[in-house]
């Protein structure tokens, strides 16, 4: 079995040499080509589900999967139609190996085993092979084009806001929901989720911290092969590291530490905010550790707010649209000014400005992890603030 896996892996890696991304999206889904097109703003409520870590991984996601089943199958098909056959075969082999490995397993599971059992449970409800769910979960993380902002607002509180832009926006819009995660009766965190996907891109742990992910372009041709290799050898995928952090970290500093250091399958930007002045960081991650940590600074005229799109802030970006999106965001944030910035105008006057809001934007989320009971009735999460805007 190990020999087969290894052979498949070598094939994937050698294919990776000829293909930068490994997975091709159909042209109509490429966000960068749509970046200048704004959309009519029609926001929708996101459906809401509870997820319980103390439930068996194979049944943990049942409710959202049943609810979104027909929409998930559309997205699965689009992704599968566009991945190289070799990748599909590889995940088939990997799923057989995991099936064998997790047989009769119980007690405390490693992340890789737990993920597999979750994907297995999801595939049973969808009526498709487990490796298709594994493969689409793997593929999702390669294409999260985003804008994330951490700022001090007019009350001196930390505010964290993000747009999620995604190539498959037409069908992903129908997969967006809000999840509250619990363990043994205790509420842990809230997240904006995509049904069928078990990683976390946007989340808040009330009274502690908020986090978002932006994709960081993989430059090496071997990228996808290395991602897979690290995936198998137990590195966290960025979105499963976010989930792990939200589940276990108890403070902003602890979250920042985990997000900076744990081994990852792929480079990524991790944006984290806390509850006190100067608690905000954009961590530019390499697979093995932080390439750069950029901190918000209350006493700086430039860095009282920090913005991340999809380029390293210390180099000239390509594609240029990533930088334009960040510049537009800065321009509008400075127009509002820190004496006026609040949880509403960061949406209407920044996130929903054309270019920052574009055809690929699926949702905006605004988070304030600090508990300020009394301020936030419609978005109350134990007294902290979390609001989703889903676009159609
Ligand atoms: C999304 O859902 C709406 C409402 O059910 C439907 O009209 C639309 O066709 C769906 N879009 C896609 C791309 O599946
Ligand atoms: C943060 O900066 C603002 C504006 O310069 C200032 O009024 C405030 O006192 C500062 N807060 C802290 C905790 O330093």
TrEMBL record:
One Gene Ontology term of the molecular function aspect: N-acylsphingosine amidohydrolase activity
The protein's Enzyme Commission number: 3.5.1.23
Domain Choloylglycine hydrolase/NAAA C-terminal: 146-322
Keyword Hydrolase tagged: yes
Keyword Metal-binding belongs to the record: no
Top enzyme category: hydrolase
Membrane spanning residue stretches: none
Secretion signal span: 1-22
Protein name as annotated: ceramidase
Lineage of origin: Eukaryota, Sar, Alveolata, Ciliophora, Intramacronucleata
